[in-house]
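Entry 12.
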Amino acid sequence: MTAQKTYLPPVNTLEGDWYVVDAKDQRLGRLASEIAMILRGKNKPTFTPHLDTGDFVIVVNAEKVAVTGKKRSQKLYRRHSGRPGGMKTETFAKLVERIPERIIEQAVKGMLPKNSLGKSLFTKLKVYAGPTHPHTAQKPKELIINTIPGAEG
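Predicted 3D structure (tokens):
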């Protein structure tokens, strides 16, 4: 009986491409799941679960991401300082005003593996609040993600 071998992609395919995604009027969860798939490399035929075969993703216009329903006023983001009584909460609307990048970062991070591979994949995500980014030297390709357009509500 022959043992099964684990597939290992060629070394030259492990270097990732760079993509730019415009988050303007895109729904948060649908956008985050597509970005997580690209970071992980699941859109490639050389996908291997235990290796980083994904690409770099630059997200622009993070402040204009859309959510549906009453999430703008009711969705809560929590963080903890590690000290007793150190939990702080704020709504989606307040976090958009303060740090709009963190919304997309947290949504994508929750969709990545919860281990050292997930931490290294997360470093390939670059999020910017405005329409510009400093990664023009990498020659990123425009990536169109067709989510349902968000309705401000």
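Annotation: Residues 28-40 form the longest helix (13 residues). The chain has a mean pLDDT of 92.
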